[in-house]
Amino acid sequence: GSEMCIETGRVLAGLPVSALLASPALRPARAQSVSRVALLHLNDFHSRHEPIAASGATCRAGEACFGGSARIATAIAQAREAARADQRPALLLEAGDSFMGSLFFSHHEGLAEAAVQRAWGVQGFALGNHEFDKGPATLARYIEMAAFPVLCANLDATAEPALAGRVLPTVTFRNGPARLVVVGLVTTDTPVISSPGPNLRVTDPAEAAERAVWAARREGPATVVLLSHLGLAEDERLAAQVPGVDAIIGGHTHLRIAPPRLVEGPDRPVLIVQAGAFGRFLGRLDLDLAADGTVLHHAQAMAELDAALAEDAAVAAIVAEYAGPLEAVRRAVVGRLPEAFTLEGCREQPCAMGNFVAEAMRRAVGAEIGWSNAGALRTSLPAGDVTRGDTLAAFPFGNTVARLTLR
Fold it and tell me: Is it the case that residue 14 has pLDDT exceeding 60?
């Protein structure tokens, strides 16, 4: 069939618009498949509701623009229609870190993200570390508005009243006799790099994945997909270690993984994909499934969402509504740069952006040395007028400067 139902009975259907992601070419089958599915995926959106430049910063006049919530909506609709034409039910899955990265999140604290994700038709969302940046209460408000499955199998929320019972470990989709079980996983660094509070416990992702696989297969044949916010290295380790995993749709490391990474697991090969970051790409992973749920064949398409793609009017209106309160703040000019300060190479060596920030911190507190972790810097700063919006996109966290005296 060309529809897939969530276990609660909600129909997951595509939208009748022109095709963006044409069917990837599948190799001739060794055995007859009993089910076919198209997994549409994105990750690490980071609140980029408006189009971005290649650097991830807000797109300016004259630059090549990518993504933006309204353009992503069109891409999703077209990919769903392309999958439907191929008689494949399509699932839209998002692998974490929709939060944090622009004034949309700083001001609305997740409500803009939930509204847009609902309009996109997200059918499974794995929590990333940044979903915890504003604490459990903010995340709980987001989940209440989301109205789609929010997943994390390696999160123990039983001691946190705001989140207890609200985060699901897995969600199961059915297509005739076929069952596809999606398992959410979040990085174990979350308590260190975010603000989950004292009552949440992040557990071992491999153990959580093993439990989910066992529970899924206890009920009969199933295909298990990990919706992972662990990062590629951890995804590869988990794929090699945990039996029964068929595919991993990843995030956290902001990588465009095409073609899929193939890791030999204990009992089957495991496909790993990831769709970059900031809504610049939309991935499609087609799976042909055997009667026992194993993947007979796969194919992948990865679309770059450039300005040739029209924006969806309904989602553009949602973005405009949430943008209203932000305009005065983000348009205010706070300074001027003779040249752009870029993030290029900042995670490996000294860079223009890092040097600028470290020097600003040093001067602010009268220190002899200034330094910052590269992960705290999120976008480049442009040449010319720099606005408050530019600075808040580049430094979206509520970080403070500490001054330490060493003898």
Answer: no
**Among all chains, which residue has been given the structure tokens 């207890």?**
164
Distances (CA, A) of 364 to 250, 335, 346: 39, 16, 22
pLDDT tens, position by position, 233-271: 999 999 999 999 999 999 999 999 999 999 999 999 999
CA distance 112 to 135: 17
Number of Cβ within 10 Å of residue 172's Cβ equals 17
Query: Which tokens belong to 234?
Result: 């951890």
Token output for 54:
């290649």
The pLDDT tens digits for 107-137 are 999 999 999 999 999 999 999 999 999 999 9
Greatest Cα-to-Cα distance within the chain, rounded to the nearest angstrom: 72
Helix or strand holding residue 83 (H, E)? helix 69-85
**Separation of alpha carbons 39 and 79, rounded Å:** 10
Secondary structure percentages of the chain, helix, strand, coil, to 5: 30, 25, 45
Look at residues 47, 43, 34, 60 and name the one whose alpha carbon lies nearest to residue 294: 34
DSSP string, 103-167: HHHHHHTTHHHHHHHHHHT--EEE--GGGGTTHHHHHHHHHHHH-S-EE-TTEE-TT-TTTTTTS
